[in-house]
Amino acid sequence: MNAPDRFRDNQPGARERKEMKRITAPFSKYISIAVFLLVWETVSRLKLVNPLFIPPVTKVLGKTWEMLMDGVLLKHMEISIFRAFLGFLIAMVIGIPLGFLLGGWFKRLQLALGPLLEFFSQTNPFILFHLIMLFLGIGEATKVSIIAWVCIWPIIFSTISGIQNTNPYLLKAARGFGLNRLSLFYKIVLPSAGPAIFVGLRLSAGYSFFMLIAAEMMGSSSGLGWLILNSQENYDILRIFASATVIALLGLGVDLLMGLAEKKIIRVGFEEFLNSEY
């Protein structure tokens, strides 16, 4: 610590301010959300907008709690979470190995298939939904398939990017230590590509809920998407907002879990790499 830093720390109240800043730092990013909710509540309570169409936040939370207590919301949540998770899992199991193959071992194939993959990734999933429905019918397979389709592309492209951006000098140095291809993959390529892969996984996790709600609205009799559609047909505005709130919280929770998993896995993997013996 240099002299100016020591001087600032010794000023009256400097340590208290520093400690307060450390405590409040994790919550600072949620200030905008709190302000938004406060404005929403105020605008609705003052009837600056019609509260029949935009009810106060407190009423929405009350309706959400009521639906949780009577079991309706939990039943549809379980169904939706299972569909989203299964579609995401299928995309991950297929997308990561395929990305490694195209980005590492079959680069020429990746160059040849690149335009086709880009074309498929840009295909409107809502059009595909009806095509898949023709083959698989209106059932769980259709909904899970379209979720997997939407989720797989960020995973494939981020994995390819992570592999191709591996430091070539690091690979040469590792080969100089006598690492075989398998050791090279686990000790160099995988840790290097890890951050990029997790970017794709986090994007796909978000896409899974987005596509889930759309799929449940278009062909389902259960799930949070169907619950919103059913509430709309019955003009139950509070239930629409309550269901949408739960969906938003689920998406936020999944993103937070993915972020924690990323930090844990990447850190542990990097530490193992540093401590490994060639």
* Shape type: flat
Task: Indicate how many domains the architecture comprises.
Answer: 2
Quick one: biggest sheet?
none
* CATH class categorisation of the largest domain: Mainly Alpha
Low-confidence stretches: none
Mean model confidence by pLDDT: 80
CATH architecture type of the largest domain? Orthogonal Bundle
Count of helices?
A: 12
Distance between the termini: 37 Å
Beta-strand percent range: under 5%
Order of helices and strands: HHHHHHHHHHHH
- Residues in helix, %: over 70%
- The CATH H-level superfamily of the largest domain is MetI-like
| CATH fold name of the largest domain | MetI-like fold
- The count of strands amounts to 0
Q: What structural category characterises the helix and strand content?
A: mainly alpha
The radius of gyration computed from the alpha-carbon positions, rounded to a whole number of angstroms, is: 24 Å
Characterization of the model:
The chain is mostly helical. It folds into two domains: 3-45, no CATH class; 57-275, MetI-like fold (Orthogonal Bundle), CATH 1.10.3720. The chain is 84% helix and 0% strand. It starts with a helix and ends with a helix. The mean pLDDT is 80.
Present the secondary structure layout.
Elements: H1 3-10, H2 14-28, H3 31-45, H4 57-69, H5 72-105, H6 107-121, H7 125-136, H8 140-164, H9 168-176, H10 181-218, H11 224-233, H12 237-275
Helix pairs in contact: 4-12, 5-6, 5-8, 5-10, 7-8, 8-10, 10-11, 10-12, 11-12
Subcellular location: Cell membrane
GO biological process, one term: transmembrane transport
GO cellular component, one term: plasma membrane
